[in-house]
Amino acid sequence: MDNFTFGLVKGHQKRADEAHEVSMAGAMGMMQANKRIRELEDKLAIANAEAAGRLAQVEAFQAEHAASPLMQKTSKAFTDPRTRGQLKTKVRMIYENTFDAFLAKLNIANPASLRLD
User: Fold this and answer.
1) Long-range CB contacts (< 8 A, 24+ apart) of 107-115?
2) Domains of the chain by residue range
3) Which helix (H) or strand (E) holds 90?
4) For position 27, what pLDDT does the model report?
5) What does the CA dihedral 36, 38, 44, 49 come to, rounded to 10 degrees?
6) Could you give the count of Cα atoms lying within 13 Å of 24 in the half-sphere of its Cβ?
7) Which of 13, 14, 48, 111 has its CA 20 to 30 A from that of 56?
8) What is the residue-level pLDDT of the chain in tens, covering all 117 positions?
9) Can you list the pairs that 111-117 forms with residues at least 24 positions away whose Cβ atoms lie under 8 Å?
10) Cα angle at 56 between 50 and 58, to 5 degrees?
11) H or E segment and range at residue 91
């Protein structure tokens, strides 16, 4: 093999090695991204489980203490088509105010649009 051909082969090999390194770095980045996605999915599942548990607590409280002042209707009504016209309870207003305040602290615009109203 002459020097010119040898130089071409070495150049191609170097580019192939660089492409392999880039590919491996991309694969590692993808593995890290997938790991992060799994972590966030787990956190979301935990948050959903906590929300379901809190809802069960309120429903159990409501069933046992329907006369509680927390279960009294307010003058505010739901606007969502599924619940339109139903008056919100005091405990519902506590939920909405807390929900909105929490998301506002995270600089999420219009938190009310992200919950059933």
Assistant:
1) none
2) 1-64, 66-117
3) helix 90-105
4) 79
5) -150
6) 6
7) 111
8) 676 665 666 666 777 778 778 777 787 888 898 999 999 999 999 999 999 999 999 899 999 999 999 999 999 999 988 887 899 999 999 999 999 999 999 999 999 999 888
9) 116/78, 116/80, 116/82, 116/83, 117/78, 117/79, 117/80
10) 105
11) helix 90-105
Complete DSSP assignment for 3-69 = HHHHHHHHHHHHHHHHHHHHHHHHHHHHHHHHHHHHHHHHHHHHHHHHHHHHHHHHHHHHHH-TTSG
What is the chain's length? 117
Can you say whether the dihedral through the CA atoms of 10, 14, 16, 20 is positive or negative? Answer: positive
Tokens representing 62 are 């409501």
pLDDT at res. 46? 94
Distance CA 109, CA 35 (A): 29
Name the residue type at position 92.
R
Angle between helices 90-105 and 3-64 (to 10 degrees): 160
